[in-house]
TrEMBL record:
Domain ABC transmembrane type-1: 79-272, 359-560
Classification via PROSITE patterns: ABC_TM1 (PS50928)
Species name: Cellulomonas iranensis
Membership in a protein family: Belongs to the binding-protein-dependent transport system permease family.
Protein name as it appears in the record: Thiamine transport system permease protein
Entry keyword Nucleus: no
Transmembrane segments: 25-44, 83-105, 117-138, 144-168, 205-233, 253-274, 304-327, 366-384, 396-421, 441-463, 484-506, 539-560
Main subcellular location: membrane
Domain of life of the source: Bacteria
InterPro entries: MetI-like, MetI-like_sf
SUPFAM superfamilies, per the entry: MetI-like (SSF161098)
Membrane topology: Multi-pass membrane protein
Length: 572
């Protein structure tokens, strides 16, 4: 006897087709909605709250603050100092970084990989550590204390170049690594000198990468906080430090709001230039291998000049402050020793916790922030990497890319203070997040998301769309195409993004200085507090804590540099 099992009616072909179309649409909708919701709640809302409190009086919009703030001579002085310092820092980083990009990405020599990793370390160092390193070098009693540079604009500019040198090297080097040498060889065959080949062939081809690097460096210099605060104080402050001073010391939210708007205009201009230049750079990238590097040819004048400039930059600008920081941390009032490091195990003066406890807090918070940044930034990179055919869709994708770059330039001080003001009831929910320790991790994630996007996005955009089309033609569903094509290619870039996000979160200071509770400060906050207390013991402990924080970030970068795919992912 044959038994027949009852089954429901099979789905019709149109119904199955609709389901196949609806599911990917819902997935892409969620991929857009999650990052936009995150940015809206944890970035747009806090910033809008601070700006609104500065411009809204008795429920009405009041823009008289602009005239009031710009009538102050101090405002014009701060804005001028910001632009001058950013311009000088950008010029120095480009002039030193382009030769470094050539040596590290087009030349072959033993130890090149290790040198690349070392050059990248300053960019992810906490800004407070950079300030401490240069201050210990230039202060009276320091190795270069006799030059009288402590507390000067020169010290600030040198520190800004130190911090941003890697941006130029990696951005320009990633492009230079992929240039087709045949154009240069043809020019030389026609009798052009090496200098003429460089100026008429190579540098024009690198123009988009150089413009992208310069605009990003200008952005980072104009929004520098910890470095300028440690080295310049109120005398040589920038818009960023002035926002902090007006907010924390004078409680002048109107002045802080006006300065935040000014900074936002500068940031938007820099991001526009960077975005256009970066788009031209990314169009030249592909997933193929880089051009063959050649041995260093010191007999050629251009190679000799590039090596000399790179040696001065690496040894004099990058290595000297870091080595001096380590040496000074070993000097104590009783002679050489590890007393400063031993002091990290006990709270100093009025600090509630020890530096080692703060280091543990920093590691835990950075881990949480990295997870959040990877999820949000990965979704943004995935969506923005697509090339829709419609004009409106392309503009929407470009707008989303620019939107998630804004946290790089908007004052972290504004974000941190905005969290304190706006997170009592986000989205009208009866939840006060200001008492949650997770708020520090969220603030750090807001800062780290753009780094994740900029690290993963070039790799995803370099994928030939025909690879996805072939996989789909062979019957792979959209989810499988995503796993076998996009994620497989971008796996190394995701690991690199993880490291950069972790390092950036570990050293974040601007927003964390507002949000960290006295019982759970992070290591950068402890370092800044130690610097503000008199006494050789506090200063020595600050140096030792800076070395500890620098070692943590350097180790992370060294591991991440090994994950970088040659020729891709070098641009931020």
């Amino acid at each position: 006897m044959t038994t027949t099992l009852a089954r429901g009616p099979a789905p019709t072909a149109p119904a199955a087709g609709r389901a196949a179309r609806v599911r990917p649409a819902l997935a892409w909708g969620a991929a857009v909605a999650v990052p936009v919701l995150f940015l809206g709640v944890f970035f747009v809302q806090p910033v809008a709250e601070i700006v609104g409190r500065g411009f809204v009086t008795d429920g009405r919009l009041d823009l008289s603050g602009f005239a009031e703030v710009f009538a102050r001579p101090r405002t014009w002085r701060v804005v001028g100092q910001t632009l001058v310092q950013a311009a000088l820092g950008t010029a120095g980083a480009v002039l030193l970084g382009v030769p470094g990009a050539y040596v590290l990405y087009r030349c072959r020599f033993p130890g090149r990989g290790a040198l690349r990793a070392f050059v990248t370390v300053p960019f992810v160092l906490p800004t407070v550590v950079v300030g401490v390193a240069f201050r210990s070098l230039l202060v009276d009693g320091g190795l270069l204390g006799g030059l009288g540079l402590d507390g000067t604009v020169t010290a600030i500019v040198l520190a800004l170049v130190f911090f941003n040198y890697a941006v130029v090297v990696r951005t320009v080097g990633g492009m230079w690594e992929r240039l087709d040498e045949r154009t240069e060889q043809a020019a030389r065959a026609l009798g052009a000198s090496p200098w003429r080949v460089l100026t008429t062939v190579t540098l024009p081809a690198l123009g988009p990468a150089i413009a992208s690097a310069a605009s990003l460096v200008f952005l980072f210099c104009a929004t520098a906080f910890g470095t300028v605060l440690v080295l310049g104080g109120r005398r040589y402050g920038t818009v960023e430090t002035e926002i902090w001073i007006q907010t924390t010391q004078f409680l002048d939210l109107r002045a802080a709001a006006v300065l935040s708007v000014v900074q936002l205009v500068v940031v938007a201009a820099a991001l526009t230039v960077a975005g256009r230049a970066r788009a031209r750079t990314e169009r030249a990238l592909s997933v193929g291998g880089p051009a063959a590097a050649h041995p260093v040819r010191l007999r050629e004048p251009l190679d000799a000049v590039a090596v000399a400039v790179t040696a001065v930059a690496v040894l004099g600008l990058l290595a000297l402050p870091l080595v001096n920081l380590v040496v000074r941390s070993l000097r104590t009032p009783r002679g050489w020793g590890l007393d400063n490091y031993a002091a990290l195990a006990v709270p100093q003066d009025t600090l509630a916790v020890s530096a080692w406890h703060a280091a543990g807090t920093s590691l835990r918070t950075a881990t949480d922030a990295t997870v959040i940044a990877l999820v949000v930034g990965g979704l943004v990179a995935l969506v923005v990497s697509r090339r829709p055919r419609g004009t409106a869709a392309r503009r929407a994708v470009g707008g989303l890319d620019a939107l998630f770059m804004l946290p790089l330039g908007v004052s972290a001080v504004t974000v941190g203070f905005g969290f304190l003001v706006a997170m009592d009831a986000p989205l009208g929910l009866p939840v006060d997040l200001r008492t949650s320790p997770a708020l520090v991790a969220v603030a750090q994630a807001v800062v780290a998301v753009p780094l994740v996007v900029r690290t993963v996005l070039p790799v995803l955009r370099a994928i030939d769309p025909r690879q996805r089309e072939v996989a789909a033609t062979l019957g792979a569903p959209p989810g499988r195409v995503l796993r076998t094509v996009d994620l497989a290619v971008a796996a190394r870039a995701v690991g690199l993004a993880l490291g950069f996000a972790f390092a950036a979160s570990l050293g974040e200071f601007g927003a964390t200085s507002f949000l960290a509770r006295p019982q759970e400060p992070t290591l950068p906050v402890v370092i800044f507090r130690l610097l503000g207390r008199p006494g050789a013991e506090n200063y020595g402990a600050a140096l030792a804590a800076s070395v500890l924080l620098a070692a943590l970030t350097a180790g992370i970068v060294a591991v991440c540099e090994r994950l970088r795919r040659p020729g891709i992912g070098g641009a931020w």
